[in-house]
Amino acid sequence: MGDRDSIVTAIVDDDLAGARLDKALAGLVPHLSRERLKTLILEGRVTGSAGEAIRDPSRKVAPGQGFTLHIPETVPADARPQDIPLSVIHEDPYLIVVDKPAGLVVHPAAGNPDGTLVNALLHHCAGQLSGIGGVARPGIVHRIDKDTSGLLVVAKTDAAHEGLARQFKDHSIARRYNAIVSGHPRPLSGTIDTWIGRSDRDRKKMAVQSEGRGKHAVTHYRVLETLSASALVECRLETGRTHQVRVHMSHIGHPLLGDPVYRTRAKALGTILNALAFHRQALHAASLGFIHPVTSQRLDFESPLPADMQQLLSRLRL
User: Fold this and answer.
1) What DSSP designation does 78 have?
2) What pTM value is reported for the model?
3) Three-class SS state of 259
C-alpha cells in the first residue's frame, strides 16, 4: 500500500448481512461506485480485521465485520485545465449541469486536443473531482455535438458517474431538443422509430439502416410553430444515438437548417442563413431531467434558445 493512500474503514450492519463484499461496500462507502470498489478488492486494497487482503468481490459478509479500504491517490487527468468560461446551471458535490454554447467540443480528441468542455471543467472543478475510476477527471456520461448548444450533465464523483450512466442506459433521462427544420412536417406530431448506424457511403455520417443494423433509435417530434418554408420543432429523445435528431429529421424530409452534414438545399432558406452568418445546425438541448444519483432527488432544468437561434426565428417569422 502507498504512503499517500486514503484510509477508509467500514463496518457491516445487519441490513447488509449475506451481501457480496463489493455490494456491501457500495452501501457503506457511497462516494465510490461498485465497479471502483470491485477494482480495489481485486488489487488487494481491501483488508479484513486481521490485516489480510481480501481479493474476492463476491465473498459474503456478516454483521459486525470490519474492512479497511486503502484508496490510492487519484491520478491527474491527461487533459490540462483551461480557464474557459462556463455557464453553470446547477452544481453540487456530486455533479454539475452546464449550458454548452455552440462551437465548444465536449471531449478532447485528435482534431481538438484542448479548448474543450473537459478542459474547462478540469479548471472549474479543481480540487472537487474525487476520481472517475481513480483518475481526477469529469465523468462524461453523454455528449452533444460541437455545434449543438444546450444542457449537459457531468459527474464529479465515481458513484455519480455510475448512477447517471445507468439512467442513460435504461433511457430514463428526460431530454428535449428544439430544432428549426426545413419545410413543414406532416403530421404535426409523430414518432420516428428506426435503426441508426454508420452510413455505407460516408463513414463520417450516420444514416437510417435496416432493422438490426446499428442501434435502435426513437424520436418523438412535435411542431411548435410553422414558419416561412420552415418550422420550429420539439424533439423528445427516447434513445440517445449519435446525430439522432439530425438523422431522423432528415430521414422524414425535414433536415435541420444550417446542418453542414445533413443539409437542406432550399435556396431561399440558404440566403437567410448566409445573411445571418448562421453556419451550424439549428439544434438546442432545451431541457434535461433525471434522478440525482446520490440524493435521489428529481432534477429538471430548462435552457432558453440561444441568441443566434432566436435571431433566426425572428427572420423566419417575417
Assistant:
1) S
2) 0.79
3) coil
